[in-house]
Design a protein that fits this description.
Elements (H helix, E strand, L loop, with lengths): L1 H28 L1 E6 L7 H15 L3 E6 L4 H9 L5 E5 H9 L12 E16 L14 E3 L6 H12 L9 E3 L3 H9 L5 E6 L4 H7 L6 E3 L6 H8 L4 E5 L11 E12 L5 H13 L1 H5 L24 H9 L5
Parallel strand pairs: 1-2, 1-3, 5-6, 5-7
Antiparallel strand pairs: 3-10, 4-7, 4-8, 4-10, 9-10
Helix pairs in contact: 6-7, 9-11
């Protein structure tokens, strides 16, 4: 009886071990891709969700998820620590990480660019009644410069500096994400905020459509030349067109910077190739979620728009399509 019990136990153990080994094999085939995005009021997050959905459907045995983060700086740090495989970043923050500068003085992040995605437009936002008509009027006001883990903060500091405004002495500075900034301006807790994002940004649309308030966007394109002289040719003058947000009746002269999707130095050439191919060829599915994905096009895949070298797997796809990279 005891001998039979032992045999049965051994048989069960062998079966269980084989089952676990099989399950392990299946599990090993499953790839998980965490995508660092941004706050829920911005554009990175809905775009990241659409990308995760497209990748999960198109790539076999792959589960991609969009993670809410503080934005570019957080995303780059998550890639550096191996907690994310992909991340959205503004070009300026990515270059800082690649070179180990500013918020990345603790060490360089070995980044590779997968795709140039769309231009991020700087919004300098206020409402009527604050007395703010131009950049110089921000002096002495309560101003939010973006959340601490965002590239909004990186670029906001540079725009203020180029406009002759000391971020520490000339304004009463808050560090709020775009959704929190909109709530604060509605409650009259701040007078203005800076936000860099796609058009339209949901939270800014919400402010523009708020009854009893008239949103204003402040011109600042004259800061571009000074920023490029100091930080490299990352920025360009652009326009937020009249009507881009409810009630905006004139063009807004702004600074813009390109966004890129980056990875670290661990992704295989095959994975990078398949991800880039999917994002370009399934663009229509992503545009259905947010129209900024129209810029996920091959003609934007030029190295001048990304200060980070393209991944060899991405370059392989671009070359197949006749793009030099």
């Amino acid at each position: 009886m005891l001998s039979r019990f032992r045999k049965t136990t051994v048989a069960l153990a062998v079966t269980l071990t084989a089952g676990l080994a099989f399950a392990g094999g299946v599990y090993a085939q499953q790839k998980t891709i965490a995508i660092g995005t941004g706050g829920t009021g911005g554009v990175y997050y809905p775009l990241g969700g659409a990308i995760a959905n497209v990748l999960s459907k198109a790539l076999p045995n792959t589960q991609a998820t969009a993670e809410v983060t503080g934005g570019s700086v957080d995303n780059l740090k998550l890639i550096a620590s191996g907690q994310s495989e992909l991340g959205f970043s503004m070009a300026d923050a990515a270059l800082d990480a690649y070179n180990g500068q500013d918020k990345f003085k603790s060490g360089k992040v070995p980044l590779q660019s997968l795709l140039v995605v769309y231009p991020n437009r700087m919004h300098v936002v206020t409402v009527e009644g604050t007395g703010i008509e131009k950049m110089a009027d921000l002096k002495g006001k309560r101003v939010s410069t973006g959340s601490p883990g965002s590239a909004t903060e990186v670029m906001a500091f540079r725009v203020l500096e180029a406009a002759g405004i000391d971020k520490d002495k000339d304004v009463k500075r808050e560090r709020l994400g775009v959704a929190e900034s909109v709530n604060a301006i509605k409650d009259r807790k701040i007078d203005a905020f800076l936000w860099v994002g796609g058009i339209p940004t949901a939270a800014v649309t919400d402010l523009a459509a708020s009854p009893g308030m008239k949103m204003k966007l402040i011109d600042h394109s004259d800061t571009v030349e000074k920023m490029n002289a100091k930080y490299g040719k990352l920025y360009s003058a652009s326009t937020i067109k009249a009507g881009a947000y409810p009630g905006t009746d004139k063009d807004n002269a702004i600074a813009e910077v390109w966004n890129i999707i980056v990875t670290g130095d661990k992704m295989s050439n095959d994975d990078a190739y398949n991800i880039v191919k999917t994002l370009v060829e399934k663009k229509a599915d992503i545009v259905a979620v947010h129209k900024e994905a129209e810029s996920f096009s091959l003609d934007n895949q030029i190295q001048e728009r990304s200060p980070i070298p393209f991944h060899p797997g991405a370059l392989k796809y671009f070359k197949e399509k006749g793009i030099g990279g």
